[in-house]
Specification:
The chain is an alpha/beta fold and 363 residues long. The chain is 30% helix and 13% strand. Strands 1-2-3-4-10 form a 5-stranded mixed β-sheet. A 5-stranded parallel β-sheet has the order 7-6-5-8-9. The N and C termini lie far apart (49 Å).
Length: 363
């Protein structure tokens, strides 16, 4: 079965690098669209409710900000804005691989062309946690895309989100919404003040610190290597030994994967020769607390949170969502659900929309 790339009338965009776009792929300087298509890792069946939640959040703000068509969140995932004759079973057959992990970075060319042929021209593709294979394919075929992710920063009073795009001026156009590191340090300071205020002051400084390994779920997308395999603790044994050489090691289990956590504890014990102590306290009580602390993990978001509390991090692998990436914008939840933000994002111009939701109370 052969599929050809649909013809478009789009002008080739300028070339700049992006975190999920190769150096030779073309990217946009301006979003031009008439409708929205909702695409993510359609090979994964887990966490559909999380994707639907994000798409529902942006549906009404986008409607108020523009006249662009967006699929109803009530019909997700059956209606994503693709042409009606798109068949997910056919797409999966063309992928010829049931495991999304192996396809995370690249899918077969025929599968790519089949999907691309069902995206209408002048579509803006928006997705939650888009895999590299998708952003690369969209950029290659000159489609605008926006990738939405929850920020690794989870200690603040508001939720933060990250938006990445192949639009080269995204950060410039939305710089007034971008969160600064100074703001995040202030948020960390507020949490630190609260936790220290409610903790007992010791009679003397705590002499011994902690090296804390942060557990992750078994199939976390941030653990996928460039070759399409899941990284495990075993892959980093030498570095773990170096970091833990003169320290005891503690372990913070992931709350949603207890079985995998037990496996990781056994592996840490085997690698270091030291039996890790299981830590049950909140990670934020530890980050903001009085005990000296260093964080060790493969790619957990805690690695990026720790420096805001002046804690040292030891990452074993690159983060899936890098706050230092100059192509992303890091925004507050209250802005993410505002029509003015989406109007400015879509048009590239500051909005005159006065209907916003900065004081909305969340249930």
């Amino acid at each position: 079965m052969k599929f050809t790339t649909p013809q478009t009338n789009k002008t080739p965009p300028s070339v700049i690098p992006s975190s999920q776009t190769s150096k030779h792929q073309k990217v946009k300087t301006k979003i031009q669209c008439k409708k929205i298509t909702l695409l993510d890792d359609i090979l994964r069946t887990e966490f559909l409710s999380a994707r639907n939640f994000i798409y529902t959040l942006i549906e009404e703000p986008i409607k108020q900000a523009s006249d662009i068509q967006i699929p109803s969140s009530r019909n997700f995932p059956f209606d994503r804005g693709l042409s009606k004759n798109f068949d997910i079973a056919t797409f999966k057959t063309l992928c010829n691989e049931p495991d999304w992990v192996r396809l995370y970075n690249k899918i077969p060319n025929e599968a790519e062309l089949y999907l691309i042929s069902h995206i209408e021209q002048d579509s803006l593709v928006i997705g939650y946690e888009m895999p590299p294979w998708l952003t690369q394919a969209l950029s290659k075929h000159a489609f605008d895309w926006l990738d939405i992710r929850l920020s690794p920063i989870r200690f603040a009073r508001d939720l933060y989100l990250i938006i990445n795009s192949n639009r080269s001026t995204l950060r410039i156009d939305l710089n007034n919404y971008h969160t600064t590191s100074s703001e995040l340090r202030l948020e960390a300071g507020l949490l630190k003040a609260s936790i220290l205020h409610n903790s007992k002051i010791p009679s003397a400084p705590t002499p011994e610190g902690m090296l804390l390994f942060i557990g992750q779920t078994k199939k976390d997308a941030s653990l996928v290597s460039e070759s399409g395999c899941i990284y495990r603790i075993d892959n980093f044994a030498e570095k773990i030994l170096t970091v833990a050489a003169n320290k005891s090691i503690d372990y913070k289990p992931h709350p949603y994967d207890k079985d995998h956590s037990r496996t990781e504890v056994k592996k840490l014990h085997y690698i270091t020769g030291k039996k890790p102590r299981i830590i049950k306290e909140s990670i934020y009580q530890l980050l903001a607390g009085r005990i000296e602390l260093e964080i060790l993990a493969i790619s957990s978001g805690v690695l990026q949170e720790a420096p805001y509390f002046d804690r040292k991090s030891h990452p074993l692998f690159k983060p899936v969502c890098n706050l230092d990436d100059q192509n992303i914008i890091h925004i507050r939840f209250s802005n993410f659900i505002s029509p003015s933000f989406w109007e400015q994002l879509i048009t590239g111009k500051k909005s005159n929309n006065t209907l916003d939701t900065p004081n909305i109370q969340l249930n």
